[in-house]
Amino acid sequence: MKFITFPPMAPSRQAKPSKIVRRALLGLAAAVSLLAGLSGANAQAPAKQPPAAPQATPQVAPQAAPQAVPGFWDPRRRPERPDLSRLTVIRFLTETDYPPFNYTGADGNPAGFNVDLARALCEEIKVTCTVQMRRFETLVDALSSNRGDAIIASMAVSPQLRARVDFTDPYYRVPARFASRKDAVMPEIRPEYLEGKKVGVIAGSAHEAYLKAMFTDAELHGYPNDDALRAALRKGEVDFIFGDAISLAFWINGTDSGDCCAFSGGPFVESRFFGEGIGIAVRKGNDVLRQALNWALFRVWEKGRYTDLWLRYFSVSPF
C-alpha cells in the first residue's frame, strides 16, 4: 500500500484564475452541469461557426471550441462555510490502478485526477491529509473499519452503496456516447436517425438496456468486451458503437484506435441507466466531513481549479 501526505496550507492570498478559466471554461462548466437534469436527450449542440472577418481586416484563424468540462455546482446555491475546527486530518482512500484517475506515479506515490483533487480539497479546508492506495474491492470495508475517512476513487453512487456509506455531491459523471468512423460522424444523434443502422454495444450492459428502451429501430449487435466492440467499429462491421464516454475518449485519442474514429452526437446522462454520478464516500453519519468536502468541492470549482485539473487530464472531452 502506498501513502502520500499533504500538509495543511498556510493562509495566503488567492491567485486570480486565468481569463480563459474565469470567462470561458468556468462558464462552460456551469452550463454543462445542466446535463445532469437531461433525460437521455442529446445534450451537445453543434458548435456555431464564427462570422467571417470583413475583407478590410486581416483574416484570423478560427478558434477551437472550448472543451466541455463537467460541473455540478450551481453558483446561485453557494454553500455556507461549515465549522472546520473539528477536522484535524483527512485520511483519503483511493484505488491502485485506474488511470488517469488513480495510479502510482514515477516517484512511487499515489497520482492521478482523484489524488490531485484530494490535494486541492485539503488545501481549501487547510487540513493535513493522507492518501492510501488499496484495491478497489477493499475500499468500503477499509472505510467502515476506520482505516480511512473518505474514499475518492471514482466510486459511482448507487442505492446499494448508499446503504453502507454516505456520499458527497457528485464531482463528475460518466456519460454515454456514440462513436463512429471519422467519415460518418453525425453532429447530432436521435433515435430516428439510427433507424436500420448497426449499433454495437456491450451485451448485458446498461448501455444496451438504454438502446433497447430508446433506440428501438436501430439494429443492435452485442459484444462481450470493449476490445471486440471497438474492433467491430474499426472494421466497419457496425456503423456506431455506444458505451462509456470516458474510456471511449481515451481510445479515440490513443494509438489503439488507429485514428479511425470520433464521437458522434453529444453525451447521454440518464441517471436511471448511467447512475447518479461519482461522489466521495464517507462513513455513515459523518456529516461534518461530508459537508466540509461539499463546501471545498464548490470552492475548488468556483475558483477555476477544477476546470484546470480536468483539462490537464482529459485531452479529449467525454462531454
Describe the structure.
With 319 residues, the protein is α/β, with parallel strands linked by helices. It has helices at residues 19-32, 113-125, 139-144, 159-162, 206-214, 226-234, 245-253, 271-274, 287-302, 305-313, and strands at 3-6, 89-95, 103-104, 110-111, 128-134, 150-156, 165-167, 176-181, 198-202, 219-223, 240-244, 261-268, 278-283. The strands form three sheets. It has a six-stranded mixed sheet with strand order 1-5-2-6-13-7. The chain has a five-stranded mixed sheet with strand order 10-9-11-8-12, with helices on both faces. Strands 3-4 form a two-stranded antiparallel sheet. Helix 2 crosses helix 9 and helix 2 (113-125) runs antiparallel to helix 10 (305-313). The radius of gyration is 21 Å and the shape is elongated. The two termini are 33 Å apart.
Q: What is shown here, in short?
A:
With 319 residues, the chain is of the alpha/beta class. 29% of the residues lie in helices and 21% in strands. Strand 9, helix 5 and strand 10 (219-223) form a beta-alpha-beta unit.
Distance from N terminus to C terminus (CA atoms, Å) equals 33 Å
User: How would you state the average pLDDT, rounded?
Assistant: 82
Q: Name the helicity range.
A: 25-40%
DSSP helical segment count: 10
Count of strand segments: 13
- Kindly name the structural category: alpha/beta
Q: How much of the residues is beta strand, in percent?
A: 15-25%
Shape: elongated
How many whole angstroms does the radius of gyration measure?
Answer: 21 Å
* Spatial order of strands in the largest sheet: 1-5-2-6-13-7
List the uncertain runs. 9-65
Q: Sketch the major β-sheet.
A: 6 strands, mixed
H-E order: EHEEEHEHEHEEEHEHEHEHEHH
